[in-house]
Amino acid sequence: MMRRTMLVVVGVVAVALAIAATANASVPKGYEVVTCGTALKLEHVATSYRLHSQEVAYGTGSGQQSVTIKSEGQDMNDLWQIAGASGKECRRGQKIKCGSTIRLFHVGSQKWLHSHNFQSPLSHNQEVSAFGDHSQSDTGDNWKVECSGTYWKRDDTVRFRHADTKMYLHSTGRHQFNRPISGQREVCAYAKSSNLNQWRAAEGYFLKYMPKNAN
Predict the structure, then answer these.
(1) Of the residues 3, 19, 52, 175, which has the maximum number of CB atoms within 10 A of its CB?
(2) Cβ atoms of 163 and 142 closer than 8 Å
(3) What is the DSSP string of the chain?
(4) What predicted TM-score, i.e. pTM, was given to this entire model?
(5) Segments making up each domain of the chain, as ranges
(6) Of 147, 139, 157, which is closest to residue 46 (Cα–Cα)?
C-alpha cells in the first residue's frame, strides 16, 4: 500500500499540495524544510548540474540503469521523489531530519537511487544506479541525509551517505559519457566527504510541512 501511494502523491503534488519553485525563489511559510513526498531536482553544488537518470543501461558493472548529472534544463528525468527508508513509512508532509535515512524515487523511470559493490564505469569508484520498482526495493536504496541543524532546510548544502556501504553520493564533474548520453557526467559513490559530494534542493514540487495530527 505504501509503495502504491507514492504514485498518487506525484499527481497530487502537481495539483494542489505543493509549489513549483527554484532554488533562488522566495520560500513561502511552511515550505522552508524538505518533506516526505516532495519531488525535487538535486543540484550538484560543485557543477550546478542536476542529478539525472534515463532508460539507458550501463555497459559494464551491474548493467542497471545509469545515473548521471547533466546541465540545467526542462527535463522531467531530473525529478526525484522522497520516500522513507526501505520497509519504513515516511508520512507525506513529514519533515526530513538531518541524520535520517530516506530513499529517492526516480519519477520518470519509477526506479530507486541505488548503490552496491560494483565499480563505476569511468572513475572506477563505486557504481550508482537506478534500480527496482514499486514492488522491488532493498537496503541498497537507503541513503542517510547529512546536514547541519535539526531538519533538512531548502537552502542547506547536504550529503547523501549510502547506508549499506557508507559511501557518499558523488561526482567528480570531469568524467563525461559519450553516446547515447553525450555530455552527461558520471555519478558514483566515494568514501570521503568533499565538496564534490555536496548537493542542494533546486527546482521541484515541494509539499508543505504537515503536522502529524493535521486534518
Answers:
(1) 52
(2) yes
(3) -HHHHHHHHHHHIIIIIEEEE-TTS---TT-SB-BTT-EEEEEETTT--EEEEEEEE-SSTT--EEEEEE-SSS-GGG-EEEEESTT----TTPBPBTT-EEEEEETTTTEEEEEEEEE-TTT-SEEEEEE-BTTB--GGG-EEEE-SSSB-BTT-EEEEEETTT-PEEE--S--B--TTSTT-EE-EEESS--GGG-EEEEEEEEEPP--TT--
(4) 0.89
(5) 2-207
(6) 157
Nearest to 208 by CA among 41, 14, 19, 7: 19
Structure-block grid coordinates of residue 19: 509549489
Q: Is 15 exposed, middle or buried (0-12, 13-18, 19+ CB in 10 A)?
A: exposed
* Domain made up of 2-207: CATH architecture: Trefoil (2.80)
Asked if the peptide bond before residue 121 counts as cis, ω within 30 degrees of 0, the response is: no
Q: How far apart are CA 32 and CA 154, in angstroms?
A: 6
- Cell 514499486 belongs to 134
Characterize the bridge pairing of strands 143-146 and 157-162. antiparallel
Is the per-residue pLDDT at 19 higher than 90?
A: no
Q: pLDDT band at residue 214, thresholds of 50, 70 and 90?
A: low
Distance CA 32, CA 95 (A): 10
